[in-house]
Amino acid sequence: MASTLHDVAKLAGVSIKTVSNVIHDYPHIRPATRERVEQAIAELGYIPNLTARSLRSGRTGAIALAVPDLGLSYFAELAASVIEAAEEAGVVVLVEQTGGDRDRELDLLRSPRLKMTDGLIFSALGMGQEDVEALDVPYPLVLLGERIFGGPCDHVTMRNVEAARAATEYLIGSGRQRIAVIGAHEGEVIGSAGLRLSGYRQALEVHSLPFDESIIGYTTLWHRANGATCMRELLDRGVEFDAVFGLNDTLALGAMRALQESGRRVPDDVAVVGYDDLDEAQYSIPSLTTVDPGQPWIARTAVQTLLDRIERGDAAGPARQLLAEFSIIERESAPPPIRSGTL
Amino acid sequence: MASTLHDVAKLAGVSIKTVSNVIHDYPHIRPATRERVEQAIAELGYIPNLTARSLRSGRTGAIALAVPDLGLSYFAELAASVIEAAEEAGVVVLVEQTGGDRDRELDLLRSPRLKMTDGLIFSALGMGQEDVEALDVPYPLVLLGERIFGGPCDHVTMRNVEAARAATEYLIGSGRQRIAVIGAHEGEVIGSAGLRLSGYRQALEVHSLPFDESIIGYTTLWHRANGATCMRELLDRGVEFDAVFGLNDTLALGAMRALQESGRRVPDDVAVVGYDDLDEAQYSIPSLTTVDPGQPWIARTAVQTLLDRIERGDAAGPARQLLAEFSIIERESAPPPIRSGTL
DNA sequence: GCGCGAGTCTACAACGTTGTACTCGGCGTA
DNA sequence: TACGCCGAGTACAACGTTGTAGACTCGCGC
Question: Does residue B204 belong to the interface with chain A, where contact is any CB pair within 8 Å?
Answer without folding.
Answer: no
